[in-house]
Design brief:
Layout (H helix, E strand, L loop, with lengths): L3 E7 L4 E8 L5 E9 L16 H20 L4 E6 L1 H5 L3 H12 L4 E2 L2 H15 L5 E6 L4 E7 L2 E8 L3 H7 L6 H16 L8 E5 L1 H13 L11 E3 H12 L4 H6 L10 H15 L3 E4 L4 H10 L13 H10 L3 H17 L1 H4 L3 H13 L2 H5 L4 H12 L6 H12 L21 H17 L8 E6 L2 E6 L4 H8 L8 E4 L1
Length: 489
C-alpha cells in the first residue's frame, strides 16, 4: 500500500477527504482532513432522483480542490467512493464521466450494504467495543452494521437520509408521514434475524453534531468527539427539544452551528426514532467512518480487515513518529508490567490499569521529543489529543495523567479536579503515578538494568544491578502510596 493515501467520500450532503500516512506495517496517522458541504443531492428527490446542475458543479469544483490538496501532500494513491446520491441518480453518469475525463479519477459508486460494511470496519478497528450496531445517517440514506463478539454479522442500508426526509416530508410539514416512513423502513432491520445490541456507534455528520451539542450542554471536560459516549435516557428530552425548535433563532440558542441549521432537525428526528425503536441505551460517537473503513479494508485486506490481537494503532503510530529509542520504550513497557504484578496484592487494581500503565510507560518520553523542558506537561497535552483511535476517553485521560504525574510527588485531589468525571478515584491514580515514577527511576541512567521485585506484607524490596548514587537518590525521593514501604538492595 502507498505510504500516503487519499480517501474521498462523496456523500449526499457532504464531500469529505482524509489523507493518511503510513508509519509502519499497520500504523498510520492523519495528515489532512477536508470537508465541503456540496449537497450534491439537493433537489434530486423532488426531481425523480436526478442530480441537479448547480449541486453537481459544487461537487466538481470541490473535488478539484481536494485533488490539489492530495497532490501537494504527495499522495500516491487516491480512492474515491460515492454513496446514496450517485447510486440512486439516473443521471449519475453525467457527473462520473466528467470527473473521469477532466481529472482522470474513477469514482467507485458503492452500494448501501458496502457503505454500511465500511462503517462497521472503521468502528470495529478504531473503538474499544465488541457488541454494537453502527448507525450512519447521511443525506440520502442511513447505514447499519451489526457487530457481535468483534465480528461483523450483517450490514444494511435504508433510504432515510436527512436531505431525503427534508424534501419529501419536512418541507411539507408532514412530520407524521416522516415518522411512518422511517418506521416502515426500520422493519427491514427486524427482518434481518440479528440480535439488536443496546449500544449504537454513531457515524456521520448529523450524529457527531448532536454529540458536540450534548458535550457542550453537559460541560464535558474533553474536547474530543471520537469515543465520546452518553446514555440515551439522559438526552432524549434534549433531542426532542431540537426536533421541536420553531426557527433558526431557537436552534442557535440550543448551540446548533450555522452549517447544520438546514438538516439538524431531520437528522435528530431520524436518530431519535432509531434509538426509540431499537431500544438503544448507550451511544458511542465515532470520529471515523466510511473513509477510514475504505482505507482499513485496503490496509488490512490480508488479515480479514482486522488489526492483529492486542494491536493499538494509535500507540504504534505515536511510537513510530516520536519515540527516542525503541529499546528504551520496550524496556519501560516490560518493567511496568513487572511492577504492576508484584504490587497487585496492595493496589488490587483491575488488569485494564496494567495495560494503561504499560502504554503510559512506553509513551512518556514523547514529551521530550516535542520539547525537553516540561516534557511531562507536553506529553499530557499531546496525548489528550494525540491518541486519535482505539481509546475510550477515560483511557486516554488516565494515560495522560499517569505521565503528567510521573515525578516524585503523587497527584492530589486538586490536581485531578478538571478531569474528575473521567478519572477513577484518587487512590488509583496515586498508585499509577507511583508505579510509573518507580519505573522511570529504576532506569534513570537508561542502562536498562536487570531488576527483580519482591513484596512481603507492605514491604517492596528492589534488587537492582549496577546501583549508582543518582539512581539511589531518585528512588529515595519517590513519594510512596499509603501502607507501602520501599527497600533497595
Amino acid at each position: 500500500m502507498a505510504k500516503i493515501t487519499t480517501i474521498i467520500d462523496i456523500g449526499s450532503n457532504s464531500m469529505r477527504m482524509v489523507v493518511l500516512q503510513k508509519s509502519s506495517r499497520f500504523a498510520f496517522n492523519l495528515i489532512n482532513e477536508t470537508k465541503s458541504r456540496v449537497k450534491i443531492s439537493e433537489g434530486c428527490y423532488e426531481n425523480n432522483g436526478n442530480l441537479q446542475e448547480e449541486p453537481m458543479n459544487r461537487a466538481y469544483e470541490s473535488l478539484k480542490s481536494f485533488l490539489n490538496i492530495s497532490k501537494s501532500l504527495k499522495s500516491r494513491k487516491v480512492i474515491c467512493v460515492a454513496t446514496s446520491a450517485l447510486r440512486d441518480a439516473p443521471n449519475a453518469k453525467v457527473f462520473l464521466s466528467k470527473v473521469s475525463k477532466d481529472f482522470g479519477l474513477n469514482i467507485k459508486v458503492i452500494d448501501g450494504e458496502k457503505e454500511a460494511y465500511y462503517g462497521g470496519v472503521a468502528a470495529l478497528n478504531l473503538l474499544h467495543q465488541k457488541n454494537f450496531v453502527t448507525v450512519d445517517i447521511g443525506g440520502g440514506s442511513t447505514e447499519f452494521s451489526f457487530i457481535k463478539d468483534g465480528e461483523i454479522q450483517k450490514s444494511i442500508s435504508l433510504n432515510i437520509g436527512t436531505v431525503r426526509m427534508k424534501e419529501l416530508f419536512f418541507n411539507k410539514n408532514d412530520i407524521d408521514g416522516a415518522k411512518k416512513y422511517i418506521l416502515e423502513n426500520l422493519k427491514e432491520i427486524f427482518n434481518l434475524g440479528v440480535e439488536i445490541p443496546d449500544t449504537v456507534v454513531g457515524i456521520g455528520g448529523s450524529i457527531r453534531s448532536l454529540s458536540k451539542l450534548i458535550m457542550q450542554r453537559n460541560e464535558y471536560p474533553l474536547d474530543i468527539i471520537h469515543g465520546y459516549k452518553y446514555k440515551t435516557s439522559k438526552e432524549l428530552d434534549y433531542l426532542e427539544t431540537i426536533i421541536n425548535a420553531n426557527d433558526i433563532k431557537e436552534l442557535k440558542s440550543l448551540g446548533v452551528k450555522k452549517d447544520r441549521f438546514d438538516t439538524i432537525k431531520e437528522g435528530t428526528f431520524i436518530f431519535k426514532t432509531i434509538l426509540d425503536e431499537l431500544n438503544i441505551s448507550k451511544v458511542i460517537t465515532s470520529g471515523a467512518g466510511v473513509r477510514e473503513g475504505v482505507y482499513l479494508s485496503d490496509l488490512l485486506r490480508n488479515s480479514n480487515c482486522k488489526f492483529p490481537n492486542n494491536y493499538n494503532v494509535s500507540v504504534r503510530s505515536l511510537l513510530d513518529r516520536f519515540e527516542i529509542d525503541e529499546k528504551q520504550s520496550a524496556y519501560f513497557g516490560t518493567n511496568a508490567g513487572k511492577i504492576f504484578e508484584v504490587l497487585k496484592p496492595l493496589h488490587n487494581l483491575d488488569d485494564k490499569y496494567k495495560t494503561l500503565l504499560v502504554i503510559a510507560s512506553k509513551l512518556h518520553t514523547i514529551g521530550t521529543t516535542l520539547n525537553f523542558y516540561k516534557s511531562n506537561d507536553n506529553a499530557f497535552d499531546f496525548i489528550l489529543n494525540g491518541l486519535n483511535y482505539d481509546f475510550l476517553h477515560t483511557s486516554r485521560v488516565i494515560i495522560a495523567h499517569t505521565i503528567k504525574y510521573s515525578k516524585k510527588s503523587l497527584p492530589t485531589k486538586k490536581d485531578l479536579l478538571e478531569y474528575n468525571e473521567l478519572l477513577p478515584k484518587l487512590e488509583i491514580m496515586q498508585w499509577m503515578s507511583f508505579m510509573i515514577s518507580l519505573n522511570i527511576a529504576v532506569n534513570q541512567d537508561l542502562s536498562r538494568p536487570k531488576v527483580s521485585y519482591m513484596l512481603s506484607n507492605n514491604n517492596l524490596t528492589i534488587d537492582l544491578e549496577n546501583k549508582s548514587f543518582m539512581l539511589n537518590a531518585n528512588i529515595d525521593k519517590l513519594e510512596l502510596p499509603k501502607s507501602l514501604e520501599l527497600k533497595l538492595l
